Amino acid sequence: MTKTSLAVILTFATVACGKSAPPAQNNAPAAAPAGPVTIDAVRVVEQPVNVTLSMPGELDPYEIVAVYPRVAGFVKSIAVDRGSRVRTGDVLVVLEAPELAAQRAEAQSKLQAANAQVVATRARADAEAGTYDKLKSASATPGVVAGNDLVVAQKNVEANRSQVVAAEQNVEAARQALKSVSEMEAYLKVAAPFDGVVTERNVHPGALVGPTGGPQAEPMLRLMKNDRLRLVVPVPEAYIADVRRGASVKFTVPAYPGQTFTAAIARVAQSVDVKTRTMAVELDVANRDGRLAAGTFCQVQWPVHRTAPSLFVPSASVASTTGRTFVVRIRNGKTEWVDVKTGLTSGSLVEVFGELRPGDNVAARGTDELRPGLDVRLKQ
Hints:
The chain is an alpha+beta fold and 380 residues long. It is built from 3 helices and 21 strands.
């Protein structure tokens, strides 16, 4: 390569390295400042609470009794069985106890002996009283009767009178003993305490029964009054503020799908169960035709009322985060979070409790994306 060619190449290289690229031109427009966000808003409404909730309930018998014998004995006969309908006073079971007959004979004998003792004691007392009267008359003549004899006769009369009183008390005691045995014999016939139906039978003729088993022992019979039932509804404590006696409540049972029954509130426990946080409410159910059975599970349409109107917002307006439930209120064009507690649901609205007032504007869709202090424009 010649010196002239090398010089030309170096000259071009120097020019290429020293020349810089022209600056790039930015033709994009400048960003405009952000404006308020437009959101849908609704108003907080105040209205009376009149909601019907579905609650579970159970039908219990109005009266039920386990029939036990009051005396020990053998079952002589039994006139009823499971499903038998009885009236008050009907004889259900007849027992036999031979030892009671012996006790009654002994008590009668003692009563007769006590009566005989009274007769003898009265005769002796009358004789002593006559003797005393004669001595007293004779003592009117000085020297005829000794003074000591008159005193002795008087004491004998008093003693005989005391013996008569004691004998009469013995007669009364013997009479009460005989009455007790007779009443025990009356217990051998077990009668129905009320009108009802026999739901359980556990004994048969010849069985030995007695009152020594206690409530845990198996009863002879179980009798239930079923022409009137108790519908027991455990009402949560949040809904017991306005439970009114006499109010009609509707309910359904699985045995009759599509049919609705009505009962009236009769009794309120006035005490909340600390385990379930519910209060038992009883309704009287007329069941003269016997269609409803005790123990049946029911679905009760329970009316809930408040003593004062409540505030409501759409369910979608309530937002929840970890440990917080709130609505987004819009005031003076800015958002703020208001903590609330929810209550009953009425259609698309939900009851809320918090620092809200009727007519307040809240976001139609509550979300934590609407941070407090955000500039917004309302779209009612």
